[in-house]
Specification:
- The structure is a single chain.
- The protein is an alpha+beta fold and about 625 residues long.
- Helix content is about 40%, strand content about 15%.
- A 6-stranded antiparallel β-sheet has the order 2-3-1-9-8-10, covered by helices on one side. Strands 4-5-6-7-11-12 form a 6-stranded antiparallel β-sheet.
- Strand 8 and strand 9 form a beta hairpin.
- It starts with a strand and ends with a helix.
């Protein structure tokens, strides 16, 4: 896991200072080593300067031989972030084809695979990656199928400039790259809590290379057209339940086996839920005894998962490590968290991830997590109405008690999100009386923007969109930034593309049945994890009691934050500050729970402040 950056600019210029400046802003991603590589190329008589940089977090082949940017004997250069988990198998195949290797790193395998198979090499990779390869006179960029590893791009074809980076902050200060907000993205976020749409970011002109895509760029030859090499199809299998459970179990086992390959210490993020507890059980089955596990705990009622964490750690072999968070720590960490996220977040869950990554960083470099299972197999409560809508009358009658038990078991949601917000999502329609304190003059520019959750469809289509578009992309960004802020690599066995493809194609009744969510993974977990967790209906999903803290522990801190942000010209142009104080007052008094909206407003303010974006 690392950080990469690159610049191609018309003219013969020294790119080293800019590359080094960018790497300094990415240093947290790779504290073990760094390097730059520069050259020039000529296209149609025009000279272009080419430079790439890298900061390294050493996971495979910890020696200096894994230094990047890496150059092969043909002069092909790579800067690479990620892990190719099947690199040993590919290495052997490439050896049989005549390739020789000087290192034990997967980086050299990626470079050799490209030289052997060209751009189609990515179809052979199992893993997560974002890399750039300079091949004589052209640049090849690629990103893994699910978008675990980030890659941001800015191009100005007129000026002859292309720049890319693992994090948006790596592009700040590069000559020719503007540093302004994309106000349509800001509006979509504030009004509808949506983001990660079609490659757009919160920064004007800075785009995200889509997951499952590659890009070939020749300096001076025109624009950028990503090429999709992978899509999640709408195929559906006709398979019996026993076969489906067996195959799902086999794929998850294989995914975890590959993700245990590491020359650095490894641990597990444990929430006490089904997914992470199942992974802990499979770790034990794989021969990993007493792995380090890391959890975030809270003392506030309705947010604590300590009971389930204790059950998991008491029944399975592990060495538990827990961090108990408090409002005072959040007060210190909040703006630093938003700085590392690069963009606002729609819910405060990343803070729980932040606390886990912080304690994990003192003991491990690799952290396995359960990300993706909820989107793949219907783990969130807002999938229930879609599932219910496609059930037959007989299924509804038979499954009603189970559904009611699940709804009752998750009544805590009513205390964390306002009823109008929940009702909007259940109905799939915008509430005309919704309160979002946007200034009308600014908001009126975006009357054409509508929320994507107005779309309705069957459960499998909804889950596929969650994986590729509406839910998972933002969560993967949070996971990458938060873990990398502390120099920790996160690996997600549920996101192996082979498992994703298989489970996605299973009938929807193998995902949600009445009120039983993630049915297929519960069946895989049956007999492996404690019954209290297997049968658990409570779904929390890294809850963070920011709403409680704003009301009880840090109301004055919140007022001060809003006071500071209201001094920012853009915040004042977008948001009705007087209305914000009114919302905060209602929340503090307990009249209405505005925590989700207040978080978005605070998140935008902290982003404007910490990003240094043009005001």
């Amino acid at each position: 896991m690392c950080g990469i950056v690159g610049i191609i600019r018309k003219g013969n210029s020294n790119l080293v200072p800019e590359l080094q400046g960018a790497l300094s802003r990415l240093a947290h991603r790779g504290p073990d080593d760094n390097g730059v590589w520069c050259s020039t190329t000529i296209h149609d008589g025009i000279t272009f300067s080419v430079g790439m940089g890298h900061v390294r977090l050493s996971i495979i082949d910890l020696s200096f031989k894994g230094h990047q940017p890496m150059v092969d004997i043909n002069g092909t250069v790579i800067t690479y972030n990620g892990e190719i988990y099947n690199y040993l198998e590919l290495r052997q195949e490439l050896k049989e084809l005549g390739h020789e290797f000087k290192t034990d790193s997967d980086t050299e395998v990626v470079l050799a695979a490209y030289c052997q198979w060209g751009e189609s090499c990515v179809e052979r990779f199992i893993g997560m990656w974002a890399f750039a390869i300079w091949d004589d006179k052209r640049l090849f960029l690629s990103r893994d199928r699910l978008g675990k590893k980030p890659l941001y791009i800015y191009q100005d074809a007129t000026a002859g400039l292309l720049a890319f980076s693992s994090e948006i902050k790596g592009l700040r200060g590069l000559s020719g790259v503007p540093w302004r907000p994309d106000e349509r993205t800001v509006f979509r976020f504030l009004a509808y809590a949506e983001m990660e749409r079609e490659g757009h970011t919160f920064y004007e002109g800075i785009r995200e290379l889509p997951p499952g895509s590659s890009l070939l760029f020749i300096p001076g030859a025109g624009g950028l057209e990503p090429i999709r090499y992978w899509n999640l199809s709408d195929q559906q299998y006709d398979v019996d339940e026993q076969e489906a459970v067996a195959r799902t179990s086999e794929l998850l086992h294989e995914s975890l086996r590959l993700r245990l390959r590491s020359d650095a210490p490894l641990g597990l993020s444990l929430s006490g839920g089904l997914d992470s507890t199942l992974l802990l059980s499979l770790l034990n089955e794989s021969g990993v005894n007493k792995p380090f596990v890391f959890s975030a705990e809270y003392e506030e009622p309705g947010y604590s998962e300590t009971r389930y964490i204790d059950i998991a750690t008491g029944h399975l072999s592990c060495e538990p490590n827990a961090t108990v968070s408090a409002a005072s720590l959040f007060n210190e960490d909040f703006e630093r968290l938003i700085y590392h996220l690069d963009q606002p977040s729609k819910l405060p869950g990343p803070y729980s991830l932040w606390r886990v990554a912080e304690i994990a960083s003192s003991r491990v470099k690799v952290l396995i997590d359960g990300q993706g299972a909820d989107e793949l197999a219907g783990g969130y409560m807002y999938y229930l109405p879609v599932s219910w809508g496609e059930a037959t009358l007989w299924q509804k009658i038979r499954q009603s008690p189970d559904l009611l038990l699940t709804i009752w078991g998750n009544r805590h949601i009513l205390g964390q999100y306002s009823l109008p917000l929940i009702w909007e999502r259940v109905r799939g329609k915008v509430n005309i009386n919704r309160r979002v304190p946007l200034l009308p003059e600014w908001a009126s520019q975006f009357s054409d923007i509508r929320p994507t959750w107005e779309e309705s469809s069957d459960l499998n289509s909804t889950l596929r969109r969650s994986v590729t578009d509406t839910s998972l992309p933002a969560l993967l960004r949070y996971g990458d930034r938060v873990n990398m802020a502390f120099g920790v690599e996160n690996r997600s066995p549920f996101l192996d593309h082979r498992l994703i493809e298989y489970v996605s194609a299973l009938p929807s009744q193998m995902k949600i049945r009445g009120g039983t969510t993630k049915w297929i993974f519960r069946e895989v977990a049956n007999g492996r994890i404690p019954k209290a967790i297997l049968k658990r209906r409570l779904k929390m999903g890294f809850p963070t009691p920011v709403g409680v803290w704003l009301r009880k522990e840090i109301p004055e801190v919140a007022r001060q934050w809003f006071s500071n942000y209201s001094a920012l010209p853009l915040f004042n142009r977008w948001i009705d500050v007087d209305e914000v104080y009114g919302l905060l007052g209602e929340h503090i008094s307990g009249k209405v729970d505005h925590q989700a909206l207040l978080w978005r407003l605070l998140s935008v303010g902290a982003w404007l402040k910490t990003s240094g974006i043009e005001q």
